[in-house]
Amino acid sequence: MKQFRAMVKARTMEFVRDKGTFYWNLLFPLVLVFGFSFAFSSGNNTLFKVGLTGPVPSAQEFSFLGVGQIEFIEYEENQTSRESLIKKVRHHQLDMVIDFVQESYFINSEGENAEILQILAESRSEEGLSLDDFKKEELTGKAIRYVDWLVPGIIGMNMLFSCLFGVGFVIVRYRKNGVLKRLKATPVTSMSFILAQMTSRFLIVLATSVVVFTGTNIFLHFMMLGSYFLLLLITSLAILCMIALGLIFAARIKSEELASGLMNLITFPMIIFSGVFFSLEGTPVILQRVSKLFPLTHFIEGARKIMLEGADILTVAPQLLILTAMTLLFLVVASLTFKWD
After folding, report:
1. Which residues belong to any copy of the ABC transmembrane type-2 domain (predicted)?
2. Which of 87, 193, 246, 339 could be a cystine partner for 168, CB 3.0 to 4.6 Å?
3. How far, in Å, are 68, 102, 113 from residue 99 at the CA level?
């Protein structure tokens, strides 16, 4: 235990004393959050978004679908539930949802686009099917800002880089410099060494994530409908999962250049296809399925459900279980393939 504490302390102090890396891990996500908040705060998007579910008729049958100023998004019934679409209307993510199965439509009476959409619909109701034939249901709800939606992705991306490069790259450097070979001659076991590296990096990344979230929340006041404890739980699991993934890269590789290239090869697709900066809704189904292979996807989905939908532990249980399973799988692979030299 004394050896374990000594290794945790040594690795943590090594990180803290590296001022460049220390401040980069703190300032980079702060700059991104504030930058995107400023860039997308004007809300001057003039495009209306209308969700469609059920058997959608043609524009000839339903002339409202031919309005050029509106973006119509079709949702498959087996992929998107009616309740989730209603939530999107409540949070102003969609201006209207038309349900062709229930013959009803939903609008947010507090949304600035609701009245305009009603006028556009009435102007196209002369012939054929029109909104007058559907039951109108008005909803209310607070709008979700882009920065509210973005912050879990930014924090998750920072966690990913910090975990993979903070563990994988460092251990590869130790191996290249002969540090691991010298440790092999000591009573330190490989499991003790790996756990010490994981513990140190976990404490660093968790503390950094909490500081970044708290610091930006003071000024931007993020929407938080769920439990802070549950958000901390899924964050902790995601950090452990990403650290375990980094250990796989560190298990045998001796070249820092090769390790860096391989980690970049997995991090950038993960950032692009995990929904960090944009939603995967509307993308090909195969792409959405591939994204489920990434731990970052499950963290971001779970964190957004907690923050923006007030999800409880049962709602995010799939994300928690998947992250736990991935962590155990990565640890088994890393432990079976790890070499000192």
Report:
1. 114-341
2. 246
3. 20, 6, 19
Other Cβ atoms closer than 10 A to 197: 23
pLDDT digits (tens, 9 = 90+) for 15-67: 667 666 666 666 767 777 777 666 655 554 446 788 888 787 777 777 777 77
Q: Is the dihedral of CA 145, 151, 154, 157 positive or negative?
A: negative
Within the chain, residue ranges assigned H as helices are: 2-17, 19-39, 82-90, 114-123, 146-163, 170-177, 179-184, 190-220, 228-250, 256-273, 285-291, 295-309, 317-337
In 3-state terms, what secondary structure has residue 246? helix
pTM, two decimals, is 0.75
What are the chain's domains?
2-38+145-337 (no CATH), 48-139 (3.40.190)
Radius of gyration for the chain, computed over Cα atoms and rounded to the nearest angstrom = 24
What is the C-alpha to C-alpha distance for residues 152 and 309, in angstroms, rounded to an integer?
Answer: 13
Closest by CA to 334, choosing from 258, 261, 257, 252, is: 252
